[in-house]
Structures are given as structure tokens and as C-alpha cells.
Amino acid sequence: MVIGDGAYIKKINRSLILQKIIEHEFISRAEIAKITGLNKATISVQVADLLNEKLVQETQQEHNTVGRRPIMLSINGNAGYVLGIDLDFKEIKFQIADLQGNIVEVNTMAIHTEVYEEVLYILVEEIRNYKEKYSTSHYGLVQTIIGVHGTVNNDEWIQFIPRLQWSNKDLKSDIEREIDIDISIENTANLSIFAERVYKYPDSDNMLGIVLGSGIGAGIINDGKLVKGHDGYAGEIGHMIIFPFGQECRCGNSGCWELYAAESVVFSQLMEKLDRPSLNYHDIKQLLAAEDPETYDVMRNFISYISIGLNNMINSYNPETLIINSELLKVYPNAIEEIVANLQSSVCVYGQIVLSDLGKDASVLGASALAIQNFFEVKEVVFSREEVLA
User: Fold this and answer.
1) 199 assigned to some structural domain
2) Cβ atoms within 10 A of the Cβ of 109, count?
3) 115: containing domain
4) Closest Cα to residue 258, out of 235, 234, 279, 242?
5) Are residues 238 and 220 in the same domain?
6) Which residue in 111, 191, 109 sits closest to 144, CA to CA?
7) How many helices (H) and strands (E) does the chain have?
8) Whole-angstrom Cα distance, residue 97 to residue 75?
9) Within this chain, do residues 347 and 231 fall inside the same structural domain, yes or no?
10) Whole-number Å distance between alpha carbons of 125 and 131
11) What is the SS3 assignment for 207?
12) Which of 22, 93, 96, 254 sits 20 to 30 Å CA-CA off 65?
């Protein structure tokens, strides 16, 4: 039982009711009372407030039985919108979602600059355009969350983005100085694992999400909560040493995992071995289908190096669900089976290892979902991806 002053208890009850409406999509007042243990009077007052604030809407459920049709409550999706952004090297992805988590629009913009001030200008202009476009809704654009492929501290300062060579940038304040809107900055690996839990594995409280790309990052969920560490830098696993005295890394160490198991390493090796100026995922898929020996050799080494790092991560965190987000592994037949075969230690214990279905959309999906959770001030949100993308 929650004990505290009236305003605090009211806030807790409001959050609980909202969370159940989000979780069930359509739910009656009686069902809320049964699930939460709150009395009908409390629910009646809280729901009246939510209806008045246009956060919740009523609909009558259709059924074939005799009697009064129950009035169902649901989130008023059109009351406001959120913007999720994935700020990547050479492109920016923008995703608008309504307050029910439904994806309204997705746009990807190529960028031809790495200069901070120029990218800042692009972001400000695009966010301003989205804010204006959705200003006719009751709450407008309620929050924007930007995912970056680098380290972000607990104050949301960008500590370092390797591919853009940005250090110590206060992107949040720089944007908020230009636009009156709530901005939040987060690491893309954290957003990706958040998306996996919201859309795919809501019942899994201990999760590891490994994101393979130009580097390697991890999102960690322990006891249902995102693990960020003392300063916010938890998950920089690409710089875990797997080969003492190995290749030198730009971080200052030698033998870092991402020097051997990042997707960019595979592309570089294959372009050199095959004397190709460029390669994409489809090219590698075709080479594997043609059973090209050099491609298979590089990919098998890639699998081996991934397995070494995963063994370390599993022994450190004992995850229930380990999700690998890699477009390259998707084109390699039986990738997960080979990885599992490499994890033979009797102390390497985990629940399941899977490839991510969310892929390159994971970061913006996580950003939008987190923005909705922040707006409603609820403990967690759960959405069905099939429904939101319908």
C-alpha cells in the first residue's frame, strides 16, 4: 500500500491507471479496479481527469450478448505525437508516432557533412518543421529523443561520437535554445534494447542487446531497468579486449572486440580479398549463395570472434534473452546455430539467443516508445509492433 501525501498518492494512482490502459489498449473501469485494487471512486475521479485532459477516450465495445455494452477506455492517440531520431554517419532517420505508439511517418535524410554546427542546423530545421506539422493536435509534438552512435553521459552530454569525431557536445541544450521543445539524447544501443523489450520481449526482465555495425555496442536491461552505469557509459563493449597485444585501437587499447567482430571489418576484409571497390549486404548474400570460399572464410572468422565476446558478456550478465542486431548475420545461413555451438562452456548460461527482427528500425522505435513513456510518466510501456506498423 502506498503511503504519502494526497498529491503524491494521486500521482501514483494516475500513473498506474494510465499504464494499464496502455498495456491493455482497451479496458473498462471495472477491469482496472480488478487489476489494480483501486476503488471505483478513485478510478472514476482519475479517469474523469484523463478524459478532460483528452489523454484518454471512451468507446462502447461491440458484443452479441444481451445487456449493456461496456464502455472501454483507450489512449487518445491523436492527442499528441513524439519524434524519434537516429543520428547516424551520413544519414538521419526521423520517425513520428502518436501517443498509442502507432507509426505515423518515417523519413530518412542523407547528410553530407560531419561539422557539428551544420548538422545542428539540419536537426533544428527538421524538428521545427515536424513541430509545426503536428501543432494542430491537442498537445502537439510532446518530446523528441535523439539516438546517437556514441557515448552519452547521465546529463545527456555527448561525450564522444567516433565516426563524426564529436567530443563534449551539448546537443540537447543547443537544440532547445533554438526551439521550445523537450529534447532528450540517448545512446542508440540503449534505445535498441528498449525497443526490443517494448515491442518483442515485454516479459523478459534480464536482457542483453548487442548491436553490430561500424563498431559494437550493448544495451543492458537488468531486473527490468536499463543499466547505464555510474556516468552513463555502460555498454561500450566494443572496447572489451579479446586479444591481448592485438591490433591497436583508436581508444588507446590493443585487441578490442570491435576490431575483429564489427560488421565494417568484414566489409573491409572482403573488399580487399575480392578486389571489390564496394560491397553491400545483398552482395555478400549472393557470394554466400554461390559458396564463394573466401567469403565463407571471412564470415566464419567473424562468427568465431563474435562468439568470444558473447561468451564474456554472458558470463558477466547471465541474460534471459540475448538479442544480436546485425544485418550481416541475417544473410549468413544458420548464424545463430554456429554461435550457440561455439558457446560450450558449462558456466556460459543464458536463456535464448536470437537475431533482432527490428533491425535498423530499433533505435527510432525505442526513441519513440521512450518518449511516450516519459510523457505519460509511467513505469513501462508495451506495444505490438504488428499493430503500430499496420
Assistant:
1) no
2) 10
3) 78-193+362-388
4) 242
5) yes
6) 191
7) 14, 16
8) 13
9) yes
10) 10
11) strand
12) 22
Same domain for 143 and 244? Answer: no
Q: Which DSSP string corresponds to 275-343? A: T-S---HHHHHHHHHTT-HHHHHHHHHHHHHHHHHHHHHHHHH--SEEEEE-HHHHTSTTHHHHHHHH-
Measured distance CA(34)–CA(55) in Å, rounded: 22
Query: Do residues 160 and 257 share a domain?
Result: no
On whether residue 304 sits in a domain, the answer given is yes
Please tell me whether the overall predicted TM-score, pTM, comes out greater than 0.85 for this model: yes
CATH number, domain containing residue 179: 3.30.420.40
Q: Are 88 and 68 contained in the same domain?
A: no
Other CB atoms within 10 A of residue 181 CB: 17
How far is the C-alpha of 378 from the C-alpha of 13, rounded, in Å?
Answer: 10
Instruction: Quote the CA–CA distance of 155 and 25 in Å, as a whole number.
Output: 33
Task: Compute the distance between CA of residue 289 and CA of residue 44 in angstroms, rounded to an integer.
Answer: 62
Q: Give the strand order in the sheet containing 225-226.
A: 225-226, 216-222, 207-212, 321-325, 352-355
What's the longest Cα–Cα distance across the chain? 77
pLDDT of residue 390: 42
Are residues 371 and 235 both part of a single domain? no
Tell whether 200 is covered by a domain.
no
Note whether 154 and 214 are same-domain residues. Answer: no
- Could you identify the residue written with the cell 586479444? 243
Cβ proximity of 104 and 83 under 8 Å:
no
Locate 47 and state its grid cell.
Answer: 479517469
